[in-house]
Structure formats: structure tokens, C-alpha cells
Design a protein that fits this description.
The chain has 18 helices and 14 strands. With about 450 residues, the protein is of the alpha/beta class. The chain has a five-stranded parallel β-sheet, with helices on both faces. It has a four-stranded mixed β-sheet with strand order 1-2-5-4. A three-stranded antiparallel β-sheet has the order 9-10-11. Helix 1 runs antiparallel to helix 2 and helix 16 packs across helix 17. The longest helix has 25 residues. The two termini are about 25 Å apart. Bound molecules: NADPH dihydro-nicotinamide-adenine-dinucleotide phosphate and (2Z)-2-iminopentanedioic acid.
Amino acid sequence: MKYIENAMKLARQSNCQSDTTFFQAIEEVLTSIKPFLKKNPQYFEHNIIDRIIYPNREIRFKIEWLDDNNHIQVNNGYRVQFNNALGPYKGGVRFHPSVTPDILKFLAFEQIFKNAITGLHIGGAKGGADFDPKGKSDQEIMKFCQAFMTAFYNSIGEDIDILGGDIGVGEREVGYLFGQYKTLTNSYDSIITSKPISLGGSKGRSSATGYGLIYFTETLLEDMGETLKGKICTISGSGNVAIHAIEKLYDVGAIPVTCSDSKGTIHDPNGIDLALLKEIKLKKRSSLEAYAEERKAATYVKREDYQSGSYVWEVPCFAAFPCATQNELSGESAQKLIDNDVKIVAEGANMPTTPDGIDLFMKHKILFAPAKAANAGGVAVSVLEMSQNNSLSYMSAEEIDEKLRGIMSKIFKDIKKTCDDYCLDMDLASGANILGFKRVANAMIAQGV
Ligand code: NDP
Ligand code: 2IT
């Protein structure tokens, strides 16, 4: 089929040549839906392939803000409103110096299919800024969030585009973004999720992605007659997703032994000290080096001392959970995990495994839970938050957790059925892509051109 070649040519013509992460995401999705497209020529008749890789709208804006020394700072802000065939645009906001249009297009593209897989009626979007929150005072964070919202608030709305959290954007930032929207519009509309509870946030949203990841993994393992109980697990990252994944791993009786940040990796063979980790990363917002100073049993490997990928993947484990960022698990790291007899890799971050890494996992029949399924619990609970806000209702933490478990289990069943329908064995990555593509493409066809 020449459709991938043609679509990639179109993508390269209509985007910057340097948008390599976005092209990687497109190629991964289009390649894996081949068996489905072969049986469904109507998608070619409606030219869905070309239409689905084109973002509906890309917004770029200037953010000017005053730092603590009263110097004026400038950053780039973006929102990619990629596809709203299934519902209003929905997706997180990332504040990190590595944010570019390429990164946001890849994340927004992935979000379309992830959101579709949840079965909820939301489209796909992503936004952010090349702002580095590290080392900034609380006042500077507030000023930046206010300037971000001021530059962009007229492009969003509770039925148009709803923002959420992501790297560098947690409850604190969401609170400031929401507060500024309210000031500018005099409305309390639910235009952002992951809000603090005091502003109408859902109990359980901050833990939803990490917990959902482990619920998905447990459901998948249960289907194979396995469990995480008593098993050594490795996790990368030490932010929102990683910390809650570690917390839930303890709940199910597993032994999480690693975590990492942009500066280095911790290996704590007796199990990560969760209270200490939270104290260092959430309260003090400092580097993991402080963890090793407190826990003598733990090893700390600096990133600069370890050149080939992340040290996390050197540690033998039953299950590996990449929860930091995109392309953090290379082919080389995948081979190390395989050599160390890993049984399952479940993605908490978005697209953390490189294409050669995924190929190796498939070749060696390692169970592989792709991000757009395994980390969908976060956005799913965001929709519960929106529904609570819009109906002025309340759900307890227990109700939300129960719903999250149900959603993750249904996602697994729907993907497994898709795999069975297209004889994909346990290739959950292809199953997830087909399921998401089908729902979005059918909605596009139903709406006409
Ligand atoms: P946080 O900002 O809370 O944490 C990010 C973590 O990853 C930190 O430990 C950070 O290190 C590390 N990290 C970030 N960028 C890099 C990098 N370039 N190299 C090495 N380490 C890095 O973000 P989240 O936990 O919310 O997000 C983590 C991943 O999960 C992302 O891929 C995100 O898109 C995805 N995700 C998040 C959801 C959510 O609900 N928050 C939902 C679904 C997916 P340091 O502390 O040094 O900065
Ligand atoms: O990647 C993701 O799914 C998120 N960052 C969560 C998005 C959201 O709108 O809650």
C-alpha cells in the first residue's frame, strides 16, 4: 500500500522538515492500521488518511511576563487543536523548555486516538510553552500562567477546547490559569481540568494517570493468568504519573525499585521510599540526588555519567513503566530489558518507546501496553471532572476510583476484541490504533466534508 508513503509526503510538505517527532507518531499509527484499512476501503474513498494527519488549527502566541526582578521575559505559547470530530478539543498543557510545535503536534495527534479509545466524546488537542518552571518563584509561576491565559483565553471554551495538566503543569499552575480565565471572562466555566479540589477539581484526578496505568497492567496480566504481586518493577520519571504509579504498585503488592528525573536515576533495591520521594519532588521540588543522600541503600546514577539512554532500563525487572517523557526508551534499552527477561512494558508517558524499541518488544513477544491505552486514565478522569462541574454535582474519591477501574478494564477489553477481529494476537499497539482510528474516522465521515 502506497498510502503511508503518500501521507508522509503530504505531512512533510505541510509541516517543517524538522517535525520529526510528529512524523514518527504519524508513521507509527498509519503503519499499524494496515490490516484494518485493507478490509475497509471506504476510508480511502473519504480521503480520511490525508485529512486525519492535518491539524484543524495551530495557534501560536507571545507570552510576556514580569520576573521577580521586574525584567520583562518573553516565551512562545502554542495550542494545537488537532481534531474535534468526536467532541470539543481536549488535552493537556506542557510547560518545558523542550516544547516546540513539533512536540505539541505529536502529542495532540496521539491525544485524538487516546481520547477516542476511552469511548468518551472528546476531540484531541495539546498546548504549552517553552517556559522552564525550574527555579522560578511561586510569584513568577503565577505571573507566567496569567500571561499565558491572557494571550490565549479567547480561543477556548467549555464546549470548544478544554485544557488540562501535563509536564510542568499540575494543580498549582492549573489553579492560576483557571483564576486568570475567570478574571478575564467573569465566568466559572470548566475550561480546564486537574483543578485543585477547592476550585471544583475531582478527587482522584491527580492520581488518575498513574493509578490507571497500573489498573490497565493488572487487567492485562490477569488475562494472561499473571499478577504484579511480589514482582520487581522499574519506573522512570518522578513526577505526577511516576509517583502515583509507584503508589499503586505498592497497593497491589509489587516492589517498585527505580525512579528518575532529568538529572539522574535512583535504584533502591528494597523498594522506593515513597514518602521521601514525595517530599523531595512534590514539596521541595528538588533533584533526586537528595534522595540518595537520605537513603544509603540506594544508588544514584547521574545522567551525565550514563550516556546510553536511561540507567533505569539496566535494572532487571518483571515489569517496566516509562513515565517521564517521549523517546526515553531506546532500542538499546529495550534490548537490555529483554536480555534481563522483562515480561511487560506499560507506557505511562506519551510515546516513551522509540520505534526500534517497540519492534524489539514485538519480535520477542514482550507484552506491550501502548501509552494511548495505558495512560488514558488521566484524561478519562478529566472528563469526569468536566461532567461534575457542568452538572454542579459531586463524586466521592471512591466513586471516581471505581469508575477509573471500569474505564481501564473496558479499554483493555475493547482493544483485545479489536486484536481478535484483525488477527493481531496480542499486538495491543496496533489494536489501540485501529480502535481509535475507526471511531474518529467514522465520526468524520458522518459529519461530511
Ligand atoms: P511531571 O512534570 O509531573 O513529571 C515529569 C517527570 O519526567 C519529572 O520527573 C521530570 O524530571 C521528568 N522529565 C521530563 N522531561 C524530561 C526529559 N526531557 N528528560 C528526562 N526526564 C524528564 O509530568 P507528568 O508526570 O504529568 O508527565 C509525565 C509523562 O506522562 C509525560 O509524557 C506526559 O505527557 C504523560 N502524561 C501525563 C498525564 C497527566 O495526567 N499528568 C496524562 C497522560 C500522560 P524533572 O523533575 O527533573 O523535571
Ligand atoms: O497526555 C494526557 O492525556 C494528558 N496530559 C492529560 C490531558 C487532560 O486533558 O487531562
